[in-house]
Write a structure and sequence with these properties.
It contains 4 helices and 11 strands; from the N terminus they run αββββαβαββββββα. It is α+β, with helices and mostly antiparallel strands. Strands 1-3-5-6-7-8 form a 6-stranded mixed sheet, with helices on both faces. Strands 9-10-11 form a 3-stranded antiparallel sheet. β9 and β10 form a beta hairpin. The termini are far apart.
């Protein structure tokens, strides 16, 4: 929750621009956040206290332009208000800062490691995550955590974020028909959460295994029944009524 008390007369989300009309310049800026949100929609399907925004403006003052990260996650807010959904994220309406902000570095450098880092730090965002697949000598994924008002780079891949209850990391995989390195969510033990496609495949494999197991049990029961019938027939040939056997 925000400690600062915003004036009540400031405009609502419906009265503010819902886009800065700046197009993304890399398809990954859409696909990477899209995958993270798709996983969350299944993982937290029963929860209604979170919001994951993609390329959506975050307003912190009505007279200043919105900050538009590639993605952000807020906890302790309503998933949606009504069927119109959110046009933007207005801090004096929500009264909750995003806990997590993601920037995917594009071929056109947009100051993700300098000005934006300082901007999110000043705003008080707990985790600022930067991903650049073009990096060679430095980590492609950087997770910065706000500690005493300053961002500190967190080691490891994935990085566990206890305040959120998720880890964030990168590894090779397949999504939207593309095999490459993607960002994923992880649990506290570092186990990756499955994508929707992987969950569908896993469910299909599980159903197939159950079907095969049921078929094997049916065949086993048929063999036992045949064996019992042969034994009963043999007893009758010997003049013994199998129904009288206890």
């Amino acid at each position: 929750m925000l400690d600062y008390k915003f004036p009540r007369h400031w405009p609502s989300a419906d009265e503010l621009p819902d886009s800065d009309e700046t197009p993304v310049d890399n398809e990954l800026q859409e696909l990477i956040p899209g995958l993270l949100k798709a996983i969350l929609l299944i993982l937290w399907a029963e929860r209604m206290d979170w919001f994951f925004g993609i390329d959506m403006g975050i307003y912190y003052h009505p007279d200043k332009p919105a900050i538009v990260p590639d993605a952000f996650l807020s906890l302790g807010v309503e998933r949606f208000y009504d069927e119109e959904l959110r046009p933007s994220y207005v801090l004096w309406d929500e009264n909750v800062l995003p806990s997590f902000v993601l920037e995917v570095v594009s071929p056109t450098y947009r100051k993700e490691y300098t000005a934006k880092l300082e901007e999110y730090q000043a705003l008080g965002v707990l985790y600022y995550v930067i991903y650049s697949s073009r990096r060679r000598r430095k980590p492609r994924l950087e997770v910065h955590k706000l500690v005493n008002g300053k961002y500190e780079l967190q080691p490891g891949n994935p990085v566990w974020m206890p305040e959120i209850g998720l880890g964030i990391g990168c590894e090779r995989g397949s999504y939207s028909g593309v095999t490459r390195e993607w960002l994923y969510w992880y649990d506290a033990e570092g186990k990756r959460y499955l994508t929707p496609e992987e969950q569908v495949k896993e469910s299909a494999q599980r159903a197939q295994q159950e079907s095969q197991r049921a078929q094997q049990e049916s065949q086993r029961a048929d063999r036992l029944a045949e064996r019992s019938d042969r034994l009963a027939q043999r007893l009758r040939e010997l003049g013994i009524d199998p129904d009288n056997l206890s």
